[in-house]
């Protein structure tokens, strides 16, 4: 039978083996989890490094305790001249434990030196990704945001898309795991691009996204999605005054737009007038729309609104005033009549002066 001391040694060995097995399982789970999950703060560019450092510190403290136990056990045996069969078994157990711990160390070392490109770094992972790391994608709110992740031909693994800020697994290959149906992955059979599509993008979709290839160790690159709000602007003043009978021309420009609007609607008051046949025409360009009314009438006065797709609308107020031509003509006629009267008066005055001159001269000669 085993004595009390031998039972204690055997119990300690079993405990160490169980702890080593638990650490191996924990390390495997951490390694698998780190291949999918990334740092919680999407704005912290050093989050991956902090996560790796935290794992290394935790591993160091655990290994320190195991090493101290291991050295103490070997020290006790080295002081004795005779080694029993039981002690040989203990040595074998310790050797097995050392091998196990070396495997765990290698696992964590591989995890620490993972091919995950740091967010603060640029460039691509040679031989795997063709897209540059830390690529910034600018998309317009309300449109479909597309993140293109190109992978080389040397890997046959499918691509995993992860949203970093909440650890959401969006898609694996062409299978969507997100509960949000706006997210989906697209990939052609002979195309290297695995594109993440986000339909009807909102400002809440902005942030970092990870494109990951499940190699060993896992390899990833990151994308920063920026969402902008487009808006319309009508050229000129917010209030326009035109004369009756002249042409009304309004030009609407779509600004901060990442793509041409699918439509631009013009409204007069609350009625859409794009397809009116009563002298109204609309001409759309890539980022502009022009409303033209050939001859403005008083009924055309009011509020006009330009409404592009996925952009903030813009409005102007138009005032139509009556033409000044009749008044000008009347004013011209009055001016002509006055001029004629003035000329006649001057003529009569001159005649009177000449007559008086002649009378005075005649009086002097015969007086």
Automatic annotation (TrEMBL):
Keyword Ribonucleoprotein: no
Keywords annotated in UniProt: Signal
Gene3D superfamilies: Immunoglobulins
Signal peptide: 1-28
Biological processes per GO annotation: synapse organization
Entry-linked SMART domains: IG, IGc2
Domain Ig-like residue range list: 142-213, 217-317
Pfam families cross-referenced by the UniProt entry: Ig_3 (PF13927), V-set (PF07686)
SUPFAM superfamilies for this protein: Immunoglobulin
A single Gene Ontology CC term: neuron projection membrane
Protein's recorded name: Ig-like domain-containing protein
